[in-house]
Amino acid sequence: MLRKFACAIAIVGFSLGLALAEDLKGRITKVDADKSTITFSEKKGDAGKDYDATGAKVFKKDGDNKVAVEDGLKAKMFTKIGDKGMGATISVTDGKVTEIVLSGKKKAAN
């Protein structure tokens, strides 16, 4: 009986943790790999907000799959972010970024 109760509490706690996570779509405009921070803007022309990305997992979209980015925030692609930024979806829990999924480039229609 106690084992079932403990499992139920664990499941409720895990579900609550997922419910508190927030996914935001927008653009990464700046990455500081040394401080593990990103500047993220949800709307065009917005100055953006700084987020702590310590320990965040970085992925890149490849069709319907997510492929891990080697070197995380220290990857070469983050050093060449243009004025428009880089399209991404970030998962934020308690003000801290836990996952970054970079948008893949769209292919031209034939």
Helices and strands in order, then pairings?
Blueprint: H1 2-20, E1 22-32, E2 37-41, E3 49-52, E4 57-62, E5 65-68, E6 86-93, E7 96-102
Parallel strand pairs: 4-7
Antiparallel strand pairs: 1-2, 1-6, 2-3, 4-5, 6-7
Task: Write up this protein.
The protein is α+β, with helices and mostly antiparallel strands. It contains 1 helix and 7 strands; from the N terminus they run H-E-E-E-E-E-E-E. The chain has a 7-stranded mixed sheet, covered by helices on one side. Strand 1 and strand 2 form a beta hairpin. The termini are far apart.
Main sheet specs: 7 strands, mixed
Strand content: 35-45%
Mean pLDDT: 82
How many DSSP H or I helices? 1
By oligomeric state, this entry counts as single chain
> For the terminal residues, how far apart are their CA atoms?
62 Å
